[in-house]
Design goal:
Helices cover about 35% and strands about 35% of the residues. By secondary structure, the chain is α+β, with helices and mostly antiparallel strands.
Length: about 90
């Protein structure tokens, strides 16, 4: 399964948060994410919970008609850090 993202969003995330989309995609493809959850608000969207820089991050994604995972953004989450780091 392919993982894709918006190149402009990737530049913004790198500048603002120091997050490399390639690294996020690798975690998803390798299956080394912490959890996979359905978004309770948006239909057809899932959350990958990943650990980056020893902190939990949420990666909202869609799966498009071509069976590609489309990363929308990546953000750190206190809620999931507290839940999974204990």
């Amino acid at each position: 399964m392919d993982v894709i993202w918006d190149p402009e969003k990737a530049k913004k995330l790198l500048l603002e948060r120091g997050i490399h989309m390639e690294e996020v995609a690798e975690i998803i493809i390798d299956g080394s994410y912490v959890d996979l959850l359905e978004n309770p608000i948006r239909a057809n969207q899932v959350y990958f919970i990943i650990e980056l820089k020893r902190y939990m991050h949420v990666v909202p994604c869609l799966i498009n008609k071509h069976e590609q995972i489309v990363i929308k953004t990546v953000y750190p989450s206190r809620k999931y850090n507290k839940k999974y780091k204990r």
